[in-house]
Design a protein that fits this description.
Layout lengths: L1 H21 L11 H8 L11 E4 L5 E5 L3 E2 L9 H11 L11 H12 L11 H9 L7 H17 L2 H11 L6 E2 L1 H9 L8 H8 L14 H17 L5 H9 L14 H18 L2 H6 L3 H20 L3 E4 L3 H14 L6 E8 L5 E5 L4 H4 L3 H4 L9 H13 L6 E3 L20 E3 H6 L3 H11 L1 H8 L27 H8 L1 H4 L1 E2 L5 E5 L5 E3 L6 E2 L3 H17 L12 E7 L5 E8 L2 E8 L18 H10 L1
Helix pairs in contact: 1-4, 1-6, 3-9, 3-10, 5-6, 5-7, 8-9, 9-10, 10-11, 12-14, 15-25, 18-20, 18-21, 18-24, 20-21
InterPro entries: Beta-lactam/transpept-like (IPR012338), Glyco_trans_51 (IPR001264), Glycosyltr_51/Transpeptidase (IPR050396), Lysozyme-like_dom_sf (IPR023346), PBP_transglycosylase (IPR036950), PCN-bd_Tpept (IPR001460)
Protein name: Penicillin-binding protein
Keywords: Carboxypeptidase, Cell membrane, Cell shape, Cell wall biogenesis/degradation, Glycosyltransferase, Hydrolase, Membrane, Multifunctional enzyme, Peptidoglycan synthesis, Protease, Transferase
């Protein structure tokens, strides 16, 4: 009875409200024309529907859908006429004849629904539903209903009927964060809407009338029952024959639900963070954050987050450098080599020509942990820092050659006396031999002769996120940097040995709208770090490490190969960073947390998991 009274009240109040609205400006001494009055107060802006953004790999294939919401805008010409007619006959039979409000439909719905246990017909026109879904809210209040009427009136004045219907087909809700007929077709059947059978069209058309009641995943039978009622309506109105109606109703409906697409979470996790950084840099948020702290900084962060959400909701395509084949190899290598152990790992792979990030492994069983060690785990680099901080700066500064001699004997600065790994002294050795065997005392000598500040002047060009002036100490020459570096940062730094320049690696190549217009792109320029001569010498020495030194387990036949191992104090971390002709990769292996010197992975050192992972990825 309350429902009946509600409909009667709405029928009576809407005309009264319109009249009240008409006379509302009496204080001006005269009554404006109703159209002019509504025109001033109800602004119908150009509609830009939020839709799902996508992330694509280097081949142009989508591997992530960012549902904010899950909508795929489709041109009305691509929507089958049968599906359009289903909505017209069930939701707004006189759509092409009314001006936004259908009083007869309100009364008809009132009569039909008062005799049923559920809502068989809606009182709102398609235009009203468009107004509600785009400009208003879903609140069930008299004020919202009156606004809906006025907005519908304006929409009908501004837009053609076909355009209103097209908007409706793209805004209606199909449950499970799915909006619009195209997204519904792809979500429930994994087909474009124009490839659905008539039975499937009627099935999805059954949902929006009451998305909870007709939820196909939870109340399939309810949805099927309503689907059959819609088909009966189409037969009654002679859009199909009775025989065809029976055939459509008898067609088996098999859902093929499309789960949210995220094929490579190790990589996409990084892309989402980089996307935020790209917007921050492009729109100036990064500079604002540098100069702010406390509540001011928090406010800027909130604005940045809102801006990121706004851009994603507008529907963009994030084009990335992801190489699916290399990505699968990186993830597989970390998972398989470390399978069954309590040890974690990470890997980052960069293309030598593009300097783009082509693959990332965030760790063993990454989908479970959701902590991406490739760029979020900062660890001391051990001896992998020696090429970057000790030997390359030494050769760059003094023009030393790979066969120049350097002492591998005991070396002390005050009471600091680092030892070689073996504990032995080796006398005068070539620089190549010193790096190949990873003699600590030789590395320290090169570092100290170059000078701490000068050595760091080269390292600073790599933009290590957490390396600062506190790290400008003697122990840094052997990897004593706290909290450390990531495998992605190390891989990026080693690309400088290709031609002597460093270009900060990125996953995102560009961000476009759906028409292909570029909205965002990184502005990167290579930075000269080493001379070509120094880069050549370092590649030569890194090759010797792999073929004759500590990196033998990483060796395989290829046109070029070179790299460096690293082990930190108490065997908390195992590293290998190196390059081939086509790629540069950094691999870290260790435990996420360690509480004492005894919580180490020394037992894995002889196995060389970091080298085996690198080899599996790069071979």
């Amino acid at each position: 009875m309350r429902t009946v009274f509600g409909y009667v009240l709405i029928i009576l109040l809407i005309p009264a409200s319109v009249l009240t609205f008409y006379y509302a400006d009496a204080e001006a001494g005269k009554v404006q024309n109703f159209d002019d009055y509504v025109e001033e107060r109800i602004i119908i802006n150009e509609v830009d529907l939020p839709q799902a953004s996508r992330i694509k790999d280097t081949n142009g294939n989508t591997y992530v859908e960012l549902h904010q919401p899950n909508r795929i805008v489709v041109d009305g010409e691509k929507v089958p006429s049968f599906l359009k007619e289903l909505f017209l006959q069930s939701e707004d039979k006189h759509f092409y004849n009314h001006s936004g409000i259908d009083a007869a439909a309100v009364m008809r719905a009132f009569l039909v629904n008062s005799q049923s246990d559920e809502i068989e017909q809606g009182a709102s026109t398609i235009t009203q539903q468009v107004a509600r879904n785009i400009y208003l809210t879903q609140d069930r209040t008299l004020a919202r209903k009156i606004s809906e009427v006025l907005y519908s009136y304006q929409i009908e004045k501004k837009l053609e009927k076909d355009d209103i219907l097209n908007l409706y087909l793209n805004v209606i809700y199909f449950n499970h964060n799915v909006y619009g007929v195209e997204a519904a077709a792809q979500y429930y059947f994994q087909k474009p809407v124009n490839k659905l059978s008539k039975a499937q069209m009627a099935f999805i058309a059954a949902i929006p009338n009451n998305p909870s009641l007709y939820d196909p995943l939870k109340r399939f039978d309810n949805t099927k029952t309503r689907q059959e009622r819609l088909i009966d309506i189409m037969a009654r109105e002679e859009f199909i024959t009775a025989d065809e109606a029976e055939q459509i109703k008898n067609e088996k409906i098999t859902l093929n639900v499309r789960n949210r697409l995220d094929k490579y979470p190790d990589y996409s996790t990084y892309v989402k963070d980089e996307f935020k950084d790209l917007i921050a840099e492009t729109e100036g948020f990064d500079q604002q954050l540098i100069n702010a702290d406390g509540d001011a900084r928090k406010a800027i962060q909130e604005k940045l987050n809102a801006r990121v959400a706004e851009v994603l909701a507008s529907g963009v395509i994030i084009h990335t450098a992801l190489d699916p084949s290399m990505q699968e190899k990186a993830v597989s290598a970390v998972n398989n080599v470390l399978a069954g152990s309590s040890v974690q790992g990470s890997a980052a792979v960069i293309g030598n020509q593009s300097h783009d990030i082509v693959a990332l492994s965030g760790g063993r069983d990454f989908e479970v942990t959701q902590f991406n060690r490739a760029y979020q785990a900062y660890r001391q680099p051990g001896s992998t820092i020696k090429p970057l901080l000790d030997y390359a700066p030494y050769m760059e500064t003094f023009g030393a050659g790979v066969n120049d001699l350097i002492s591998a004997d005991k070396y002390c600065v005050g009471d600091w006396c680092p030892n070689n790994y073996s504990g032995k002294e080796y006398g005068m050795v070539t620089i190549k031999e010193a790096l190949t065997k990873s003699h600590n005392t030789s590395a320290v000598r090169a570092y100290m002769r170059t000078g701490i500040e000068r050595s760091f002047s080269y390292l600073d060009k790599f933009d290590f996120n957490r390396v600062d002036e506190d790290d400008h100490v003697r122990a840094a020459s052997l990897g004593g940097i706290d909290p450390g570096v990531t495998s992605l940062e190390m891989a990026g730094a080693y690309t400088s040995f290709i031609d002597g320049t460093f270009t900060k690696p990125h996953a995102i190549k560009r961000v476009t709208d759906f028409e292909g217009n570029t909205l965002y792109a990184w502005k990167v320029e290579p930075v000269r770090v080493w001379s070509s001569a120094t880069a050549y010498k370092m590649r030569d020495m890194l090759t010797n490490v792999v073929k004759n030194g500590t990196g033998k387990k990483a060796n395989f036949a290829t046109s070029y190969i070179g790299g460096k191992t690293g082990t930190t104090n108490n065997y908390h971390d195992l590293w290998f960073v190196g390059l081939t002709e086509g790629y540069t990769a950094g691999v870290w292996v260790g435990k996420d947390k360690y509480n004492s010197k005894y919580d180490n992975i020394q037992y894995m050192e002889s196995y060389g998991p970091q080298q085996l992972i690198w080899k599996r990825i790069m071979r």
